[in-house]
Structures are given as structure tokens and as C-alpha cells.
């Protein structure tokens, strides 16, 4: 009888990869979870890495020079590297294929499926889903060859699990995967909540502090400049309002504005606990777990109506949704909510209830186990 699950992720240190590995161990306690880190496989093959530089320049050289693509994503998204990774995984798994019950892949950058094992995918994005977001143009997309390979990821999987409903819709509609093979199971939280860390609830007076929190690493894409412009309008009404920026390092000269830069996940918790309101006015978003982490810390949210965000921000219930790039609407929403601590607290409690019921790894794991068990058959578990 097979006794292992093979979990394939791109990076060893990414918080989501660590959380999913633990979720699999907890969800399938009768099996050992063996992990393949794709970046570790590639480090053993400098010949592939060197050859991929040429393929990257061939596919995306002009776009890199024009600033339409960044170096890391272009390097990881060549058809050549896609095919090499698939072959490397198959070569590693084949000699001991009888040891595994199935393979489980995080994200949809490569295809970790084999010809001899059931395969499952868990992802927060598709490339074509980006087309639904404002400002995205065809030149921002990857090569047609890579898009065809991305399609194979979903069609080679027994089931595709997604972290948001918009991505599930994209896989069904844009990649022609049958509805029965796509399931939105959402995502858990990668940091401790206030209740877990302090064994109690956060103080209600935090909502009267007029303290805005931004957590994100991609300052431009995630709407950082828009938030700064809106914050100037906020300060004209509330001179005591504060803005804390965690994860990015913009050069800003504003009173009551603190820039923290990147921190380990565990240390970000402190800033969630101190904030009155979470704001991430992003312009393009697959699914950022920072939203879910903010909800788990009882924070109301102001965000943009793009990507997965409407899954977890319901206007008038736990926050406000604004059009991307609309700085005046952003400023009005901030001013309105910062002046109403009672509403902030109500929104914060609603955020927490949604996070607790839907966005936790126990719920995600239970949904995944149930559907994998149904697909493979009860008798093998």
C-alpha cells in the first residue's frame, strides 16, 4: 500500500507553502508528506538555469527592456523551463512511484503531474484571470506557448482547488475545465490571530485611534501611491490620523507615516493588532493572504473591487470596496470610516467571523480531503 503524499511547491520558505505542507500533514495523518521544492531541484542543474537565460531573453527580452515584465517572473515563465521542470519531477518520482498515493501541487507555474499518479492542484491565480483587471494589456501576458502549457496544468489534474471564486471561474471558462473538476476551498491564515496570541480579544479603543495599516510588498501594483495621496486628504480632516506601511519601502515624507519595510510573518502580527483599519487599494490582485490575516485580527477593510477581493470584503458588512485608481473615493471612504469607531468595530467583528468560519486551514483541509477521497475512492484511505 502507498504511504506517501508528494507535495510539490516552488519555494521552500514561502509562508503559504509552509502552511499547505502542515495542512496536508494534519488532513491526511495516515500518510507521510514528502516535499519537492522546485527551486531546489533547479539548483542542482546549473545547465538548465544557464540555458533558461537564453530562452527568457528570446521570449521576453523586449518586454523586459520596456518594463512590461520583471526579471524573476520572466525567468520562471519560459516554455523551456516549464518542460524541464516537468521532466525533472517525473524522473525523481518514477523510481518510487509505488510509494505515493497522489501528488499535490501548490500554484500553477509548472505542471507537476505524472503519467502514473493522480494529481491535484491548489492555486490562487491563472494567467488569463489577469485580463479581467483594469490596465492589463496583451503585452503583459506571457508567450502563447507558455499559455498553452499553463492550460495543461489544469487538464492534467484530477481536481483543481482554488483559493477564490474568480479563479475557479477562470479555470472553468477560460481554460475549459469541467465544473466537476474545479472547486473553490478558500485559504487559511499564516499568522496567529489576536485570540491565539493573547488569549483574548483586541481592545475596542483601537478603532478610535485612526490608524491605517497597509501590508504589501509590491508598492505600485498594490496601490501604495494612491493610498498616500488619499492619506493627505485624510490628514486635512484628521491631523492625528496615522498610516503604517509594512512590507514595502517607499520614500515618503509625511507626518504620522511610518514605513517598516519587510518583516518575518510572525512579526507582522504586532502591526495588525495596533491598527484601526486595513487598506490595500490594489490595482491587480490574485489573492493576497494579507486581507485574510487582517480579517483574522478583527480589522475592517477598504480595498478595490478586483480579483478575489470581493470574496472576503462585503461592502457595508466588513468594509468598503472602491474602483481601482479612484483616489477621491478612497479618501472619502477612509475619512468616513475613521470618523465612526463604532462602525469600524462592527466591521471588524464581521471580518473576524468570516475569517473564522471560512478562512482557516481546518476548513480548507476538510474540503480538500473530502473531495480527494471521493475522487480516489474511500477504500484507499
Descriptive report:
It is a single chain. The protein is an alpha/beta fold and 381 residues long. It folds into two domains: 4-188 and 360-380, 3-Layer(aba) Sandwich (Rossmann fold); 194-357, Rossmann fold (3-Layer(aba) Sandwich). It contains 15 helices and twelve strands. Strands 2-1-3-4-5-6 form a six-stranded parallel β-sheet, with helices on both faces. Strands 9-8-7-10-11-12 form a six-stranded parallel β-sheet, sandwiched between helices. β11 (301-304), α12 (309-312) and β12 form a beta-alpha-beta unit. α11 crosses α14. 43% of the residues are buried.
Beta-strand content bin: 15-25%
Can you say what the CATH homologous superfamily of the largest domain is?
Glycogen Phosphorylase B
What's the Cα radius of gyration? 22 Å
Q: In whole angstroms, how far apart are the ends?
A: 10 Å
User: What is the overall shape?
Assistant: globular
Oligomer: single chain
Q: How many distinct folded domains?
A: 2
Low-confidence stretches: 194-201
What is the third-level CATH name, the topology of the largest domain? Rossmann fold
- Reading the helices and strands in chain order gives EHEHHHHEEHEHEHEHEEHEHEHEHHH
Strand order of the largest sheet: 2-1-3-4-5-6
What is the CATH class designation of the largest domain? Answer: Alpha Beta
Q: Report helical residue fraction.
A: 40-55%
Amino acid at each position: 500500500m502507498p504511504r506517501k503524499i508528494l507535495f510539490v511547491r516552488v519555494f521552500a520558505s514561502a509562508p503559504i507553502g509552509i502552511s499547505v505542507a502542515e495542512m496536508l500533514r494534519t488532513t491526511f495523518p495516515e500518510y507521510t508528506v514528502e516535499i519537492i521544492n522546485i527551486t531546489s531541484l533547479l539548483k542542482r542543474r546549473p545547465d538548465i538555469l544557464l540555458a533558461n537565460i537564453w530562452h527568457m531573453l528570446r521570449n521576453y527580452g523586449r518586454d523586459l527592456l520596456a518594463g512590461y515584465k520583471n526579471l524573476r517572473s520572466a525567468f520562471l515563465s519560459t516554455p523551456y523551463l516549464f518542460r524541464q521542470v516537468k521532466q525533472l519531477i517525473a524522473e525523481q518520482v518514477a523510481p518510487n512511484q509505488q510509494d505515493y498515493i497522489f501528488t499535490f501541487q501548490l500554484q500553477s507555474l509548472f505542471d507537476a503531474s505524472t503519467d502514473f499518479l493522480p494529481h491535484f492542484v491548489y492555486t490562487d491565480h491563472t494567467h488569463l484571470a489577469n485580463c479581467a483587471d483594469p490596465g492589463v494589456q496583451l503585452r503583459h501576458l506571457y508567450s502563447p506557448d507558455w499559455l498553452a502549457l499553463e492550460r495543461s496544468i489544469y487538464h492534467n489534474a484530477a481536481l483543481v482547488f482554488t483559493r477564490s471564486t474568480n479563479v475557479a471561474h477562470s479555470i472553468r471558462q477560460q481554460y475549459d475545465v469541467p465544473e466537476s473538476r474545479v472547486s473553490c476551498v478558500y485559504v487559511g491564515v499564516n499568522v496567529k490571530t489576536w485570540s491565539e496570541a493573547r488569549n483574548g480579544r483586541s481592545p475596542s479603543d483601537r478603532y478610535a485611534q485612526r490608524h491605517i495599516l497597509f501590508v504589501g510588498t509590491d508598492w505600485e501594483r498594490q496601490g501604495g501611491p494612491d493610498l498616500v495621496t488619499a492619506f493627505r486628504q485624510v490628514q486635512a480632516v484628521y491631523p492625528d490620523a496615522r498610516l503604517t506601511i509594512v512590507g514595502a519601502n517607499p520614500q515618503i515624507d509625511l507626518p504620522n507615516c511610518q514605513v517598516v519595510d519587510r518583516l518575518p510573518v510572525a512579526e507582522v502580527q504586532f502591526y495588525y493588532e495596533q491598527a484601526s483599519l486595513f487598506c490595500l487599494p490594489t490595482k491587480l490582485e490574485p489573492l493576497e493572504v494579507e486581507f485574510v490575516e487582517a480579517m483574522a485580527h478583527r480589522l475592517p477593510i477598504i480595498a478595490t473591487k478586483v480579483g478575489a477581493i470581493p470574496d472576503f470584503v462585503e461592502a457595508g458588512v466588513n468594509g468598503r470596496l472602491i474602483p481601482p485608481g479612484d483616489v477621491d473615493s478612497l479618501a472619502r471612504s477612509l475619512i468616513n470610516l475613521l470618523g465612526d469607531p463604532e462602525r469600524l468595530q462592527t466591521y471588524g467583528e464581521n471580518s473576524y467571523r468570516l475569517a473564522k468560519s471560512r478562512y482557516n486551514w481546518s476548513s480548507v483541509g476538510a474540503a480538500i480531503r473530502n473531495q480527494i477521497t471521493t475522487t480516489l475512492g474511500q477504500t484507499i484511505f
